[in-house]
Amino acid sequence: MAGCSGCSYKGMSTAVEDTFVGVRFGEETNLTLCRTDGRIYGQGDRVVVDRENGPTFGKVEMSPMPVFKPCQKSNARRVLRPASKADIKAFENKLKNELLAKRFCREKARALKLEMKISKVEFSLSARQATFLFTANGRVDFRQLVRDLAQRFSTRVKMVQVGARDEAKQLGGLGICGRTLCCSTWLKDFKPISIQMAKRQNLSLNPSKISGQCGRLLCCLAYEDPQYHKKKSRRAPKPNTGAAGRAAGEPN
Questions:
Q1: For residue 85, how many other CB atoms are within 10 A of its CB?
Q2: Which domains, ranges and CATH numbers included, belong to the chain?
Q3: How confident is the model at residue 18, as a pLDDT?
Q4: CA-CA 20 to 30 A from 73: which of 34, 51, 112, 189?
Q5: Which residues of the chain have pLDDT under 50?
Q6: Using CB atoms within 10 A of its CB, is residue 202 exposed (0-12), middle (13-18) or buried (19+)?
Q7: Upper half-sphere CA count for residue 138 (Cβ side, 13 Å)
Q8: Residue 149: per-residue pLDDT
Q9: Which residues contact 134 (CB under 8 A, 6 or more apart)?
């Protein structure tokens, strides 16, 4: 079976040569497609998966998980093993460390008078590395903060500055439409959004109505904007300026 039209995987088979499951990591909204190397996992099983930041604890939410595209198979993460008691204990310690580290980091940042907001803290399952996501209006000298964190938690600290929209993507939540945020589910790229998009759609310019959880203009303003562009380009003739108006002798 051919792949997606125009896709780099076009012509590759979509036949399933392996078993795939959907795994949820922490409070992530989307399930991650994972290959099991032939092993069968049931819904609710706890597993350890090979991810970019190392082995990660997760829970099987869908088994099996359908695969429709070759690129899905190629991007699937590998399930390393069923979670052992040691893995479960390490995961519980990870959650405790993340909570303590977030609180400690906020207190230290305040004491050091650093203008930054700590959004999220993520420890690796082995506790050898901790990633701190933060937002700030400008550059922040966090060298002393990193030293304090590394000493307190005996781990390698990585500070990552993100934008307001990336923060919302990481934290998730519900939009004013009542649905899960687009950025935390399916939206991968952030396109420029302008106030002109709201004006073209005759929307209220009240910031509370056209701003998202991140405080920026709603990403969904761009979804229908091309249609409003087309509508604007099709200018209707002024009354009595058409052939019928001229034939009736009406003034232009």
A1: 7
A2: 20-83 (no CATH), 89-162 (3.30.300.20), 172-233 (no CATH)
A3: 65
A4: 189
A5: 1-3, 236-237, 239-250, 252
A6: exposed
A7: 3
A8: 95
A9: 116, 117, 118, 119, 140, 159, 160, 161, 162
Helices (DSSP H) in 114-242: which residue ranges? Answer: 143-153, 164-171, 195-200, 207-210, 225-233
- pLDDT at residue 96 in the model: 95
Taken as a whole, the chain contains a residue count of 252
User: What distance in Å separates the CA atoms of residue 156 and residue 206, rounded to the nearest whole number?
Assistant: 44
**What integer pLDDT is reported at residue 244 of this predicted model?**
38
For residue 64, whether the previous peptide bond is cis, meaning omega lies within 30 degrees of 0, is yes
Token readout for 248 is: 């009736």
Distance separating the N- and C-terminal Cα atoms of the chain = 61
Q: 185: Cβ–Cβ under 8 A, 6 or more apart, which residues?
A: 29, 30
